[in-house]
Amino acid sequence: MRRTLAPRPLPPAEDQAARFARQREADRTATAEDYVELIADLLRADGEARAVDIARRMGVSQATVTATIGRLQRDGLVETKPYRGLFLTDAGRDMAAAAKARHELVVQFLIAVGLDAETAEQDAEGIEHHASEAALQAFERFLAARKAAG
Amino acid sequence: MRRTLAPRPLPPAEDQAARFARQREADRTATAEDYVELIADLLRADGEARAVDIARRMGVSQATVTATIGRLQRDGLVETKPYRGLFLTDAGRDMAAAAKARHELVVQFLIAVGLDAETAEQDAEGIEHHASEAALQAFERFLAARKAAG
DNA sequence: TCCGAAAGTTAGCCTAGGCTAAGAAGTGTG
DNA sequence: CACACTTCTTAGCCTAGGCTAACTTTCGGA
Ligand SMILES: [Mn+2]
Ligand SMILES: [Mn+2]
Ligand SMILES: [Mn+2]
Ligand SMILES: [Mn+2]
Question: What are the residue boundaries of the HTH dtxR-type domain, all occurrences included (chains A, B) (predicted)?
């Protein structure tokens, strides 16, 4: 009986490179996802999404929000009416809806596997951006099975 | 019986800001973790870790590796002997061991909840950096219970 | 109505992490 | 042992996403 596991061989270099590349891609879209999700939440809850509120909730300066919103606008996700708040384009609404659904699913899944609610919220904020469609489907299956067994 | 769930209220602004701040912090350390983990893997598998191999496996240019290694060196994680490869400091070895353990755990966990192995490897590469200690413990408990149940 | 507070923008700065192109420095083989 | 090839570094560029300080614009209450 062996004590130590045989170390797994390194994956092929190209495969590993592809994984890192996809991860870098996910990192690049994460900020946009979090912003549009928050804008959608504020629009629903408050009827408006102001830059100052986004700054407070993101924990970031107003100047940073201005710059980030500029990129979101450039990318066709957001429209602005100064002093009248921010609005989502169709593309922005789509992204927000997807981000929100993903966020909720990841939170529920983490709670279902035994994580406390507050930590689940914390970790979901990062994990959500790195869970593939296949992973989200696995999480959904898990929740459905858990509920059926309930 | 209600059809639609009541939308959850927004969390307190300070809580939400703290979550985003922690996520940004995790993003900043992710590159270092991936590099030292890879260096440790190469040292074990090949007996040396050369910049050119890291570039190939990270999917990045050699110039980028030079710059990143410079930061790791500045931060006391890595030592270099030009043309003789890279070496980890004690701190680097510690970080690599932790990163490796976390990586393996996340992969095994994702497979256990029904994800295919290749996607598990892909998603783990990102998720590993956002799973808190509490989450990792929950994943371990889940795997242990799964094993006990057979 | 006006004037101070709040909200937003602008300017100027920074670091991380990417890139290409060009040059320097080892390595190993004929 | 020389020279071609590989490896590594340097220089110069870029974008995202942070910051502070100073300015402008709008809003609302006295
Ligand atoms: Mn998030
Ligand atoms: Mn989110
Ligand atoms: Mn990783
Ligand atoms: Mn990893």
Answer: 28-89
Distance B90 CA to C26 C1' (A): 28
In the reported structure, the alpha carbon of residue A22 is separated from the centroid of ligand 4 by a whole-number distance in angstroms of 13
> Are the beta carbons of A58 and A38 closer than 8 angstroms?
yes
CB atoms within 10 A of CB A141: 13
Give the CA A124 to C1' D2 distance in Å. Answer: 61
- Nearest Cβ partner for A119 among B60, B135, B139: B135
Indicate yes or no: CB of A138 within 8 angstroms of CB of B123.
no
- 3-state SS assignment for residue B85: coil
Higher pLDDT, B124 or B2: B124
pLDDT digits (tens, 9 = 90+) for B51-88: 999 999 999 999 999 999 999 999 999 999 888 899 99
Interatomic CA distance for residues A133 and B124, integer angstroms: 14
CB contact under 8 A, B10 and A45: yes
- Token look-up 């609610």 returns A117
Q: What is the pLDDT of residue B11?
A: 94
CA–CA dist A13, B41 (Å, integer)? 12
CA A33–ligand 1 middle distance (angstroms): 7
Query: What angle is formed at CA B31 by the lines to CA B134 and CA B141, rounded to 5 degrees?
Result: 20
| CATH numbers and ranges of domains, chain A | 26-149 (1.10.10.10)
User: Residue B137's closest chain A neighbor by CA?
Assistant: A115
**Structure tokens of A23?**
């991860």
DSSP B12: P
